[in-house]
Amino acid sequence: MYLRAVHAEHSIPLLRHFIQENPLGILTTAIPSQAHHLIQSSHIPFVLDVSDPNSEDELPILRGHIARQNPQAKAIIEHATANPSPFPTPTSTSHKLQQEIALLFNGPAHHYISPKFYAATKPATGKVVPTWNYAAAQAYGEATVYFDSQSPETSAFLSRQIDDLSAMAETQIMGYEEPWRVADAPERYVELLRKNIIGIEVRVTSLGGKFKVSQEMGEGDRRGVAEGLEALGSAEGGYVAGLVRERGGLGEVEGPK
């Protein structure tokens, strides 16, 4: 991701929070395979783990799972089987991928920016072009995969993963006071589904963010972008307008007069 200085976000706590608020990540791998594409991506919701939530620099661990029948999972399993760990232990059946992986998390909304929004530059010089505003976080890391369905280690990882993911989504996203729990489903049914997924745990080694919301423009143009988006009356436009105002130092959205 191109992190132009004016758009870059380096605050690790803010980026951890961004991922927690937008947990559906795009997992990208580059694994050589005779049967599958070299580069593959899948949308996966992640649980974020951090030992000290107040830390200013702790990079998180991200936990997710992927369908065993997904071609990306098949390439991962193929690679792991052909390249066993050089330091196996009697109790561990997990496998660390040799290749670095990438994760991309997008904000809930993005928007096209029309040159008509630039209230200062367009009438003055006409030197404006369209662009797109958005927010995203990108992580790189080392991935450990859990794919042996007969392994107690894999079973324990997946049980914890799906329990934590369900609890997070039911409470933080849905806001349910009485959330649905994995234990509400028949145990045998859950066990069969668990055998059809593999776990992935990513130890993040690099984390960066980008809030591209018209910061490079002058105040008059930023204000014009915010007002233009708000005038659309859409949820997406309102969200991006809020980011433009927040990042551009324009204050709160004005109410009706």
Round the mean pLDDT to the nearest integer and report it.
Answer: 93
Overall structural class, as computed from helix and strand content, comes to alpha+beta
* Percent of sequence in beta strands: 25-35%
Query: How many structurally independent domains?
Result: 1
Shape-level CATH architecture:
Roll
Low-confidence residue ranges:
253-257
List the secondary-structure elements in sequence, H or E: EHEEEEHEEEHEHHEHH
Pfam family, one: FMN_bind_2
Protein name: Transcriptional regulator
List descriptors:
alpha+beta, Pnp Oxidase, Chain A, ten-stranded antiparallel β-sheet, 7 helices, 10 strands, TR_PAI2-type, Split_barrel_FMN-bd
Protein described:
Strands 1, 2, 3, 4, 5, 6, 7, 8, 9 and 10 form a 10-stranded antiparallel sheet that branches. With 257 residues, the chain is of the alpha+beta class. The chain has helices at residues 12-21, 71-82, 121-124, 152-173, 187-194, 219-231, 235-247; strands at residues 8-9, 24-30, 39-45, 47-49, 61-67, 95-96, 101-106, 111-113, 131-146, 197-212. It is built from 7 helices and 10 strands. Strand 2 and strand 3 (39-45) form a beta hairpin. It has a single domain (8-111, 129-216), classed as Pnp Oxidase, Chain A (Roll). It is elongated, with a radius of gyration of 22 Å.
